[in-house]
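Support reply, case 0932

Customer input (verbatim):
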Amino acid sequence: MFLTRDDRKISIIGGLLLLGLTLTTGFAVYSAMRQQIEAALGRGLGVALQGKALLIENLVQKGLADTHALALRPFIVQSMQELSAQPDNVSALHDLKRNVDSLTKIGFSAAVVYDKNGNLLSQAGRFSEKQTQSIPLNKYSNTSIIWDGQFILRTSKDILDEEQRRIGSITTEIILPKLTRRFSEIRSIGKTGEFILCAPPEEGKKEMACLISQIDGIKFRYFQYVTEVGVLPISFALDGKSGVIAVKDYRQVPVIEAYAPLRAIGLGMTLKLDEEELFKPVTEELKNIFLYLAGLIIAEILLLNWLVRKLIKSEREACTAKETAEQFSKE
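Our regenerated output:
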């Protein structure tokens, strides 16, 4: 049995309707899945970021507290007072040197003490030579986080006598191995994952000093506070805001990025992952889904054609039976 032109039109229109309905349903499901996955993974990035931000704040504040405690250490203050009154006091200088040398045994990688005129009195340990690769902590004077193959906290504090008069200063560096390990654990996030830690731009400048942790290591670089495409999420973090956003990053690549402020030390931090990698599992499954959809659409069209043929056959048989009955009635 052959289909007439009208029958073919019915089959084609019905097939197209089924095709459109199936594709629309499939894409609606995919869109809903994508939004749910994006929201869930975004929350995961936000939680991971908050944990690392809290760790950085705690480690930095502990290091600052340790250095500030040194400026109040009675033996150091006493030696400084004696040297302030008698600069040639050998005994006081020896006591000061002994106290400063002991600092490298209690967690400080380097320490140096100056008198009130800036003259060096005693030094222990080796200071980092990577001062240019540092993020300043604007909330604390003369304090910065240095990257020299590892995180180093450098800070200076004035030494005051009992009458709160400045009699000198002490500068220390503390290696932060735990922070180095945690900041370097970007592989656990993904191949395109990045941690970014930045300080606000200095007054009159538009660049932010930042440290970036990528799969190939940690790098120091400057970012513009405002770029051609708008404000970067790290700028939101430096403004005291936190959240998750889908945006193009400084490479003009679509990413999902979580941002949060480190209010205690005046820094901002972001954690991001390229959308391509984020949705890679979904994209891979999408290929299988398309195959299933294609099979479903073919099956629907074949079923529709079968139904059309069956209906036409039934209709023609009914017409034939009716014609036969009419002929018998005439006879």
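We compared this against your earlier run and they match. Two observations from our side: The mean pLDDT is 81. Helices lie at 5-71, 74-85, 90-101, 177-184, 233-238, 275-278, 280-330. Please reopen the case if you see a mismatch on your end.
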